[in-house]
From TrEMBL:
Belongs to the COX15/CtaA family. Type 2 subfamily. This is Heme A synthase. It comes from Anaplasma platys. GO terms for cellular component: plasma membrane. InterPro entries: COX15/CtaA_fam, HemeA_Synthase_type2. Heme binds at H254, H307. Its cofactor is heme b.
Length: 332
């Protein structure tokens, strides 16, 4: 497998993951994620065909908490609309799996993948299979008692996406022969390492916010409930074992982490004399402003979608910088 073939393959996979993030976000924002009540990895590729098939699917949906408590009396045409949004999301997942696994099997059987890349691709394959299981468990959590998915499972679903995308993107950069920066100070490496960790944590908290619909309240910035730090949090009364299930705590931590990560990104050019650091600063500022706009406009679909996808743009820049900085220790 040539470097060009590897780069094209991995680049397409990265693009498809980004598309999955966009469609997955739209699925959640349009409340379509619970419309398909079964997990059929193989036969599920075929959508309902004919009135009888659609009637059967709607009958299954009518037994779910979402129908009973939220969408009771939904018309067949409206049901088809939300069903097809979720169907597209699942279809893209299957397509991504094929685009990844078929070339992997072909080049793997021919022993045309170097050991280092093969190990990384093996990890991605395991994470991809796990992602399918976690995705279904997430959906299943909203089909039993409550008309919404577990925000913890939603966060786990996104975290796996972060890992998969980061490994794919890093492998793509490696195939493209992206170089390294020599003689980077320890402070620079610590700064980018900390920024990556906090950015990933911030993205996971974004999933918690989304799962709890916490963006629909406290729609002011920088004040939250009339203060920079709400009194309930200052008093410590919300700090307990279940605090990640509290909408105020989760939204506040998402705000706090966003501000910290923005600060780190803005000062990054001081530690790293490279244009990528400037790009990170600019894109992180855009992402921060998108987050604020999403909040103050009560999670409008187009703003929330841009905010979610742009988070992965920021992550891509951070992974790029990480390769520039951390590859030095092995290749220098």
């Amino acid at each position: 497998m040539s470097s060009l073939q590897s780069a094209i393959w991995l680049g397409v996979c990265c693009g498809m993951v980004m598309l999955m993030v966009l469609v997955g976000g739209m699925t959640r924002l349009k409340d379509a994620g619970l419309s398909i009540t079964e997990w059929k990895p193989i036969t599920g590729v075929i959508p309902p065909i004919g009135d009888e098939a659609w009637a059967r699917e709607k009958e299954k949906y009518q037994k779910t908490p979402e129908y009973l408590y939220v969408n009771q009396g939904i018309s067949l045409s409206d049901f088809k609309r939300i069903y097809m949004v979720e169907y597209l999301h699942r279809l893209l997942g299957r397509a991504l799996g094929m685009v990844f696994f078929i070339p992997l099997a072909y080049w793997g059987l021919r022993r045309q993948i170097n050991k280092r890349l093969a190990i990384r691709l093996g990890i991605i394959a395991i994470l991809g299979a796990l992602q399918g299981v976690v995705g279904w468990l997430m959906v299943k959590s909203g089909l039993v008692d409550v008309p919404h998915v577990s925000h913890y499972r939603l966060a786990a679903h996104l975290f796996l996406t972060i890992l998969i995308f980061s490994l794919l993107w890093y492998s793509f950069l490696e195939s493209m022969g992206v170089g390294i920066i020599k003689n980077v100070a320890t402070t620079g490496r610590v700064a980018i390492g900390l920024t990556v960790v906090l950015t990933c944590t911030q993205m996971v908290f974004g999933a918690l916010v989304a799962g709890l619909d916490a963006g629909l309240i406290y729609n002011t910035f920088p004040l939250m409930d009339g203060a920079v730090i709400p009194q309930q949090i200052l008093s410590g009364q919300l700090i307990n074992a279940n605090m990640l299930g509290d909408v105020m705590v989760v939204q506040f931590l998402h705000r706090l982490l966003g501000t910290v990560v923005l600060f780190l990104a803005l000062v990054m050019p001081l530690f790293l004399r490279h244009k990528a650091a400037v790009w990170l600063s600019a894109c992180m500022l855009v992402q921060f402003l998108l987050g604020v706009a999403t909040l103050v406009h009560s999670v409008q679909v187009h703003l929330a979608s841009m905010h979610q996808v742009f988070g992965f743009v920021v992550l891509a820049i951070e992974v790029y910088i990480s390769r520039l900085v951390f590859e030095r220790s092995r290749t220098a």
